[in-house]
Amino acid sequence: MDEKIIIAGFGGQGVLSLGQFIAYAAIADGKEVTWLPSYGPEMRGGTSNCSVVISDRPVASPIISAPDCLIAMNKPSLYKFQDRVRSGGTIIVNKTLIPDIIERKDVKVIYIDAGDLSLKAGNPKTANIVVLGAYVKQSGLFSKELVSEMITKKFISKPKLIPANLSALDLGYNFA
Amino acid sequence: MKELMKGNEAIAEAAIRGGCRAFFGYPITPQNEIPEYMSVRMPAVGGCFIQAESEISAINMVYGAAATGVRTMTSSSSPGISLKQEGISYLCGAELPCVIVNMVRGGPGLGGIQPAQSDYFQTVKGGGHGDYKMLVYGPATVQEAVDLMYNAFDKADKYRLPVTILGDGMLGQIMEAVEMPEMKDLTKIPKKNWATDGTGVGENRRIINSLYIDPDVLESVNHRLFATYEMLKKDEILFEEYKLEDAEIIIVAYGTVARISKSAVEILRQRGIKAGLIRPITLFPFPSTVISTAAHKECVKCFLTVELSMGQMIEDVKLAVNGKKTTAFFGRVGGNVMLPEHIAEAAEQEVKKNGSCI
Predict the structure, then answer these.
(1) For helices B340-354 and B255-270, what crossing angle results, to 10°?
(2) How far apart, in whole angstroms, are the C-alpha atoms of residue B154 and residue B311?
(3) Which end of chain B is more exposed for a tag (fewer CB within 10 A), N or C?
(4) For residues A78 and A60, is the Cβ–Cβ distance under 8 A?
(5) Which helix (H) or strand (E) holds B263?
(6) Torsion angles phi and psi, residue B50, rounded to 5
(7) CB-based contacts of A136-141 (< 8 A; 24+ apart in sequence)
(8) Do B174 and A32 lie within an 8 Å CB cutoff?
């Protein structure tokens, strides 16, 4: 089993932490994992991405040529990476910021209004967790409960944030 | 239990657990998480953390701390390591144990902040003046970096020399699951009968110095240092071999690039090309024997050295191959990192040029 995911968007959209949640869940599930961020003179509003590789065996290359899944949180990210998604792979599109329809017919596309669902969850900053929910459902790699556990652990020092994040996870999961 | 940790932070924690109690540094991307982590963790274990006013100051603080026998280290990235070269030469001359971490970024000059391997010459051949070597590790994974860092102080103490961990921006920034070793018991570390720590009253004076005005004395110091380097060559060489048994093309790569190369080996084998990988883990001492042994095998047609540089380690590969087979090079520079497919393509071309043994 090998799962390669590229998650990309604006800095501040939580793309790096979205990737980290997937990585935490993969480890808790007994898998090998690498999480590699783009790093640089980045700032809120700039572009940001990370590559996550999950495998049963030790991960060789943490650099991904053809992802199984692309999570595009903004338009520049979609256009930067969509051609690299492997045939038969998945693209999760944040419809809130990307009105475009994907022309490729050989990939599965999930259009999700992460902004709207995050408001329903009670916190507009949870759009990344909405998308995480959608990813967990479509990948079927690990259970929603495991990811909920990771989220609860992560926000243990800020318990006020837990309910909205768990609700965001549910909304995204049920949507996909 | 395995924990997801960033390379830089994991290395810092491993250093503490390996006995480091004095850290001196100056900020530079992409290794800032090391001093950041140390600034919190070092006081918690009763150690010393100082953000010096410059890299030059930091390396000389390492010299001072090492002279007292404490386990000490510094970390930086390429331009910062260049500034430390004078101090490194002095540390080698004075035979002081310490650890230096270099999370290499693109150069020359200020270069960029993205990953590179273009400091191989500086680190392995000696960036400072004089005849000296360091024990140099090029870890490929966060776990390997942790394991090498954890024991690096033991090696530094044993051979009385600086040990360098040569990583790159990728290794510093990547997160992987790691198993942290236990905290080392510092009371069990061998006594340093040379350290200027105020003990040893009534003995001869203990002097830490690298100035030897008498040519005969300096010559003997040079010979003593090189006798130590011969011991390293005998006992400390580390490398990984991957699918060499039937390989017709052997990729040689170290650090994170070796991981990308390993994926390239898989791609090549799927395409019916018998590829293998030799991954030096110690860059000095260099694992020449495994390469020269492979070069003598009939089945092996060629070598491809892959680096994030214009070609530095390839010189050591060529010395080991010694003209027995062709040695090609593939590299990316400037902070760009190759994909596994790029390496596979370069390898495929080499195989075509050199003829297949199938």
Answers:
(1) 60
(2) 32
(3) N
(4) no
(5) helix B255-270
(6) -130, 125
(7) A136/A25, A136/A169, A136/A172, A136/A173, A137/A172, A137/A173, A137/A174, A137/A175, A137/A176, A138/A69, A138/A90, A138/A92, A138/A108, A138/A110, A138/A176, A139/A3, A139/A69, A139/A90, A141/A3, A141/A25, A141/A26, A141/A29, A141/A54
(8) no
Q: Is the peptide bond before B30 cis (omega within 30 degrees of 0)?
A: yes
Q: Domain residues for A15?
A: 2-175
CATH number, residue A55: 3.40.920.10
pLDDT at B357 (0 to 100): 53
**CB distance A90 to A107 below 8 Å:** yes
**How many C-beta neighbours within 10 Å does residue B224 have?**
11
What is the distance between the alpha carbons of residues A20 and B50, in angstroms, rounded to a whole number? 31
* Torsion, Cα of B306, B310, B312, B313 (10° steps): 0
Is A3 in the B-facing interface, judged by CB distances under 8 Å? no
Rounded to two decimals, the pTM is: 0.96
Angstroms from B29 CA to nearest CA on chain A: 8
- The CATH class that applies to domain B240-354 reads alpha beta
User: What's the order of all strands across the beta sheet hosting B22-25?
Assistant: B48-51, B22-25, B72-76, B98-104, B162-168, B135-137, B282-284
Q: Which residue type, as a one-letter code, is found at position B61? A: M
Give contacts of A27 with chain B, Cβ < 8 Å.
2, 4, 177
Reply yes or no: is the peptide bond before residue B285 cis, omega within 30 of 0: yes
Domain count, chain A: 1
> Do the Cβ atoms of A125 and A165 come closer than 8 Å?
no
Q: What ranges in A109-161 are assigned the alpha helix state H? A: 114-121, 127-139, 144-154
Residue length of chain A: 176
Q: Taking the domain B3-235, which CATH number applies?
A: 3.40.50.970
Distance (Å) from the alpha carbon of A62 to chain B's nearest alpha carbon: 7
Q: Which two tokens stand for residue A103?
A: 């022309």
Query: In this complex, is the C-beta atom of A43 within 8 Å of any C-beta atom belonging to chain B?
Result: no
CB B43 within 8 A of CB B176: no
How far is residue B163's CA from residue B90's CA, in Å, rounded to a whole number? Answer: 14
Q: Which residue of B has its CA nearest to A36?
A: B174
d(CA A68, CA B197): 58
Q: How many residues are recorded in chain B?
A: 358
Best residue of B9, B173, B175, B342 to probe chain A, by most A CBs closer than 10 Å:
B175
Range list for CATH 3.40.50.920 in chain B = 240-354
Supply the pLDDT for residue A33: 97
